[in-house]
Amino acid sequence: MAALLANYIFVVCKVYSNGPALFPIQEPSYELPGDGFVPVPEHFGDSFGEAEFQQTHTILADGGDRFGVSALAFDQHEELLWMGNQGGHVTSYYGPGMQKYTSFQVHTNQEVRHIHTFDDGILALSRTSLRCQMRRGIPMFTHRFGGRIKSVERFGLLLTSRVLRADKVEVSSENMEDMQCLLQISPDTLLMGGHQEKIIVFNLTQGQETSWLDVGENGCAILRQHSRFICAGDPSGSIALRNTNTLAVEHTIEAHTGSLSDLDVHGNLLVTCGFSNRHGNLSVDRLLMVYDLRMLRAVTPIQVVVDPLLLRFLPSFSSRLAVVSTLGQTQLVDTVAPSEPSLSLYQANTAGSVCLAFDVSSSCQCLALGDAGGSIHLYASNPRTAMFNSFSRETEFADPVEPLPPISILDEHTPLASVPMPYCQPGTSLLSDWPEHLLRKVYRYAACLPKFICPQFIFITGTVLSKV
After folding, report:
1. CATH number of this structure's domain 52-380
2. Nearest C-alpha neighbor of 273 from the set 286, 282, 291, 283
3. Residue 34 DSSP one-character state
4. Residues 102-138: pLDDT tens digits?
């Protein structure tokens, strides 16, 4: 055994014996890799074209030093990525370059659990409130649990090209308690669910609740829309398929025995991930449960190599699915041929933080992950030409500040009034604002006319003097 081990060590040292370079020496029994060989460090470089996605940005979000990223959403109308953290703050980033666009607070201390974008703004859902804001950051209304009603002397708020028929921007509700998810099923109707016994039907035009549905003590944690059903998943692992018109339950799917982590719907497929109850303990299911909504039955599950926590379909590819684990690992799987030999696996550097949020852009060119450490990780299929949406409208930016023309210090003809007065912040004052005890009011008297006035000056100014 010692002789075999020594021989083995000799062979290894011989193959990798060329100093610090550490590359194999060509021998008759050893074949160098072909032209398709790529060293491991180059797999993560920009020149490696085989990778479907490349990580382009990892930024620390606003408040990331104190709060984790709890919600992410790509804007469906503009080139914006929205982030909500555990401290109730919302920030938007423009384009694949992640330029900060707007940043505002939607709640004093509750985390943002869901962000939804629509034509005229965004909806941010926290545990006890629903906040509607314009993309520029101006609040439109707040619908919260047990809040005081504030009347505001203003005209109606524009919403979906109509007028919000209410003169109150903050409205109280007894049903807004421990909310978790929302879904817009029409331009006017919004569904909100949570860890309670009701699903709230909210009218965006009127800014108030119209009705509610009883869903039992398990509540509703996830809402997804299908052409035939409204898929409502509860934390216990079951999914209720509701009619899109009457919202009545037509079918129930028992997906996981422990708990439901996430689900997504695309075409006729419904895919779920969650936990199983084994010997009284919850363990992660390595199998993604797949259901055919045409026949309302389960099909062959998909096995993944990561512990699935979040998943999203890639809209541009009907059979592709992105699965994210708690450690920031992202695996791309095919629902049609799940046993294909190619493996697409990406690792985000979360520094040990748990991944809490994930979203895919409508163009299928960008992926975004948010972790508990307050960082946002952006992946792009092509960092130079990636877009969030295929046909985005232009984003409104603030007007640029026009620079003032330079004035020479020796200039005696330019009036000082051409320089606009600056806006003084509270607690500051202009240099010419002297205290009262150093000032004295005087009147400026008109200058005396000279005894002799040049006739040419009179002709130029148009003054007519009568002869005496």
Report:
1. 2.130.10.10
2. 286
3. -
4. 999 999 999 999 999 999 999 999 999 999 999 999 9
